[in-house]
Structure formats: structure tokens, C-alpha cells
């Protein structure tokens, strides 16, 4: 009887195995989606970067990445990504600190987090048009500044279809993303740490410089890397806003694959391969920094 009970289909061990096997069904759609729309396209792009038009193996596509115009496109993209990441991290950190550790009313936090969740995903063509209608040459803010304050942005050198114009546009989704990611890290700062620092004679700035920031530094640096990768790969917003007037890597890539004059799909695959390397390194460093930060905050 004992042998039969050990192998009974209704035993707890068998039931647990069945439950675990059924639990895996919940992640199957995600795995299929990731394979079809992330893994396979990435493998296809990487393979295309090492093939010529006839499908033969070659390194010529990677060598073409060192053309001056291609290097300039990468450099402009890196500068825009750095600027938007640094500004987004600084402004987003101040907002997150104000709603978590500051003296603002507690009811402000929930609407701010909700708005950040929505705004961080608002990008592409709608975002470009929103900024054109707001800060374009005939935009609402431009019109109000001229007619109320007599100040013309464009007469003082501002141009929405430029480096700083695109950077400001990216900040619309970079700042909310920073708020969402850094808020849990700020929540992880224990009150006892600040109380102990103040009892030992530290001032508020000394607490932040010697206690809080060293603990938050991995999370801050990791989030900035994520923001960098987030803006480096953006194309829809930049293309709808600036067209071909600003040669960043995603626009050059689009021109090589879909263009009528500069069409060279193999060079486009090589450009995509370079972007994969840069964003992959950024995301990998973010994951590593995030893991280090979580160990401290636990």
C-alpha cells in the first residue's frame, strides 16, 4: 500500500509538478512574443551585417561604419542621448525626491506616478506633433511668448528642428521614466540612516553627500545608462520632428534601408548592429548597477 501511495497521481509531489507545469503556460505568450519580435529580428540584423548583397560573408559592411558621415551620425546620436539622459536624470531625480522625501502633500505622489507611467510611453509621431504645435514657429507657446512678453524664441537662436530641440523633446519621456525608476530607490533609504547621521553631527548636505548618494549612486548611474539607451534607439519622434535635417543614426539607418537614393540595406544592417552593441552594453551595465543598488537597499 505504501508503494502505491508513493506513486499515486493524487500525491502532493505529483500535484505540485502539475501545478508548476501549468504555471509555465502563463509565460508562453511572452516567450513567443520575445522570440518573434526581439530575438529573431536581432539575429536577422546581425547576420545581415556580415553578408553582402549576394549573401556571402564579408566585413566590408562593418568597415563602412568608419566613414566620416556615419561616425558623425553616431556622435550626434551619442551627444543627444547623453544630454537627454543627464538632464532627464537630474530633473527626474529632483521630482522623485520631492514626492518621496520632501514636504509635499502625500496626495501628490499618486497622480505624479500615474502621469509618469503614461508620459514615459508617449513618444513617436504624436509626441513630435505635440511639440511642433507647442514650440514650433507657429506653436502655442511661441505665440504666447511673442504676444504677451514680446520674446521670440527663434529670434534668439532656438530651433525645434535642431540638437537642443530634439533633446528637449526627448525629455518629455526621459524625465517621467527617471521618476518611475528612481522612486523605489529613494523609498529604500531608511530613516534610521539619516537620523544616525544627524545625531552624529552631520548636516543635511553632508548626509546626502556621504550617506545617501553613495548608496543611490549605482541606481542613479544605472538609470542614466537606461535613459541613454532609451533615447539612442528612438527614431519615430526624431524622424517626424526633424526629417532628414538632423543626421542621427536611426534616421541614417532608415535612409539606407528604405531610402530611394542612399539605399544600401547591408550598410543599414551594420548600422543596426552598431546600435545593438551600444544599447546592449548600456542595458547590461544598467542591470548590473541595478543589482548592486538593490543589495544595498535591502
Overview of the molecule:
The protein is mostly helical. The protein folds into two domains: 1-49, no CATH class; 68-297, MetI-like (MetI-like fold, Orthogonal Bundle), CATH 1.10.3720.10. It is built from 14 helices and no strands. The chain has helices spanning 2-6, 12-23, 28-49, 60-63, 68-100, 109-119, 125-135, 140-149, 163-187, 191-199, 204-232, 236-242, 249-258, 265-297. Helix 5 crosses helix 9 and helix 6 packs across helix 9. The longest helix is centred in the first third of the chain and has 33 residues, at 68-100. Residues 1-7 have low confidence and may be disordered.
Record the SSE blueprint.
Layout: H1 2-6, H2 12-23, H3 28-49, H4 60-63, H5 68-100, H6 109-119, H7 125-135, H8 140-149, H9 163-187, H10 191-199, H11 204-232, H12 236-242, H13 249-258, H14 265-297
Amino acid at each position: 500500500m505504501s508503494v502505491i501511495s508513493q506513486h499515486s497521481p493524487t500525491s502532493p509531489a505529483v500535484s505540485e509538478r502539475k501545478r508548476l507545469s501549468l504555471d509555465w503556460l502563463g509565460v508562453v505568450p511572452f516567450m513567443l512574443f520575445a522570440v518573434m519580435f526581439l530575438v529573431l529580428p536581432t539575429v536577422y540584423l546581425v547576420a545581415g551585417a556580415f553578408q553582402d548583397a549576394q549573401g556571402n560573408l564579408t566585413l566590408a559592411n562593418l568597415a563602412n561604419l568608419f566613414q566620416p558621415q556615419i561616425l558623425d551620425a553616431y556622435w550626434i546620436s551619442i551627444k543627444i542621448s547623453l544630454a537627454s539622459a543627464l538632464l532627464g536624470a537630474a530633473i527626474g531625480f529632483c521630482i522623485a525626491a520631492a514626492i518621496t522625501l520632501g514636504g509635499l502633500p502625500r496626495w501628490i505622489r499618486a497622480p505624479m506616478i500615474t502621469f509618469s507611467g503614461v508620459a514615459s510611453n508617449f513618444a513617436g509621431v504624436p509626441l513630435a506633433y505635440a511639440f511642433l504645435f507647442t514650440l514650433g514657429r507657429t506653436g502655442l507657446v511661441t505665440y504666447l511668448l511673442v504676444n504677451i512678453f514680446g520674446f521670440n524664441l527663434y529670434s534668439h537662436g532656438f530651433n525645434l528642428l535642431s540638437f537642443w530641440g530634439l533633446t528637449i523633446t526627448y525629455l518629455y519621456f526621459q524625465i517621467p521614466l527617471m521618476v518611475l525608476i528612481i522612486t523605489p530607490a529613494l523609498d529604500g533609504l531608511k530613516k534610521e540612516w539619516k537620523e544616525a547621521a544627524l545625531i552624529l553631527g552631520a548636516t543635511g548636505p553632508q548626509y546626502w553627500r556621504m550617506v545617501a548618494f553613495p548608496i543611490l549612486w549605482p541606481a542613479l548611474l544605472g538609470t542614466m545608462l537606461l535613459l541613454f539607451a532609451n533615447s539612442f534607439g528612438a527614431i519615430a519622434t526624431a524622424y517626424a520632428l526633424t526629417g532628414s535635417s538632423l543626421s542621427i543614426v536611426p534616421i541614417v539607418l532608415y535612409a539606407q534601408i528604405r531610402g530611394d537614393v542612399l539605399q544600401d540595406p547591408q550598410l543599414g544592417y551594420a548600422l543596426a548592429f552598431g546600435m545593438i552593441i551600444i544599447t546592449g552594453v548600456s542595458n547590461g551595465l544598467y542591470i548590473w548597477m541595478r543589482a548592486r543598488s538593490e543589495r544595498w537597499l535591502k
